[in-house]
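Morning, I've got a small favour to ask if you have a moment. I owe you a coffee for this, so here goes:

…
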Amino acid sequence: MLRVRGVLAAETWLVILEADAGEGTGWVSLAAPLSETEALAVLAPQTVTSTVIEWDGWRPRAFRCRRIGTLQLEKTGLNVADASGQVREALADRLNSLDPDTLPWTPASRQLVNRLALLQHTGPGDWSWLLDHADLSGGPVFTEARLRHALENSLPWALKARLEGEVPETLVVPSGSRRKLDYSEGGVVLEVRIQEIFGLAESPRIAGRPVILHLLSPAQRPLQVTTDLASFWKNTYPEVRKEMRGRYPRHYWPENPLEAEPTARAKPKGT
């Protein structure tokens, strides 16, 4: 940093001939004022004009910038669609050092990653392939839906088949209803009303692991969490039945749930 004494301190541009650098801050001892026109003419060979891409989340913003070293002379906004080449280059650089947590994840796309993990598929280590799935028309290059679409379309056919066959998004329960599975880092969770799984002797398994059953009351409130359905029927259900018959008398609470007809209704038809 240089300090200027006297009237020259008010000038925007100076040509400095002599200065004492000092220790961090020095003083100008000989200088003369310069007009902006003169200064820019002298520095013209060092002036660089470029397109600069900045990011607002995953939305690119394009600017035409004119600089002399670190001195910015101009910054004018541009139409992103007109700078798609520069946006693509900037996105490629960003993807090369990507922190995956910054992507626009949704519960659905997180579920997909967790399902892949159950197949011992760790997911991509290099995210540069996402470049081919980006939208460079002016909005966010990645939205939640676009990321999910990219993740699904990047899977090999054989892996897609395993995904649907071994770790499906939904499970058909004994009542005939199709219920959504929740894949979390702690395991696979299925929320289901007790009446819908009558007759099911053991907990279903996904990728070799027992499903964590959240057994619900008719009011969809949790009654029990278990991975051992056989033990629940034998040891816990009699107490649950005793309490629930008084609270929900219009619903089906058979004495032997393993021989009872499962139902998504209050009671099976004809009961």
Q: What stands out?
A: The longest strand covers residues 47-56. The chain has six helices and 13 strands. Residues 229-247 form the longest helix (19 residues). Residues 23 and 73 are 29 Å apart (CA to CA).
